[in-house]
Amino acid sequence: MNQNIAIGLHLAMLREQAKLKQNELAKRLSWSAAVLSRVENGERSLAEEELDIVLNGIGTPAALKVKEILSRTWKIVPKPLLNDPEADLLWEAEQTAQKVHALAASQDVKQFYSNRLNRYKEEIVDAAGLVANRRYRAAFIGTIAVGKSTAICRAAGLEISTGQGLSKPVLETGAGGITICDVHLRKGPGFGLIVEPCTEDEIRRHALDFARYLVGAAQAVPQLLDIEAEGGAPGISREVERALRNMAGLKRKRALKDANGLVVVAAVDEARELAANVSDPKKLAIEILARMELHKRDRRDMWHSETSGKQPLEWLQALFSDVNNGRQAEFSLPKRIEMVLPSALMGEENVEITLIDTQGVDDNAGRADLEQHFDDPFSLIILCTVFNEAPATAVRQLLERAKDGGVRTLDSHVAILALPRPGEALAMKDNGYPAQSAAEGYELKAEEVQLKLHPLGLANLPLKFFNATEDPPDALGSFILDRINAIRESQRSSLREIVSGATALLENYEHDQAREAMVSASRRLRTWLDNNRELQGIQSQKVHDCLVGTVISAHPKTVYAAVARDGDWHKLNFSHELSQGARRIATSMAAPKLNDFKAIANNLLQDDQCSDAYDLIRQTVRAMETGFDNMIRRAQLVGQSIYSDEMKGDAQHWHMCVEQWGLGNGYRAQVNKLNRVWFEDTHGEEGESRVLNAIKDTWDETLASVRQLLAQE
Question: What is the pLDDT of residue 225?
Answer without folding.
Answer: 33
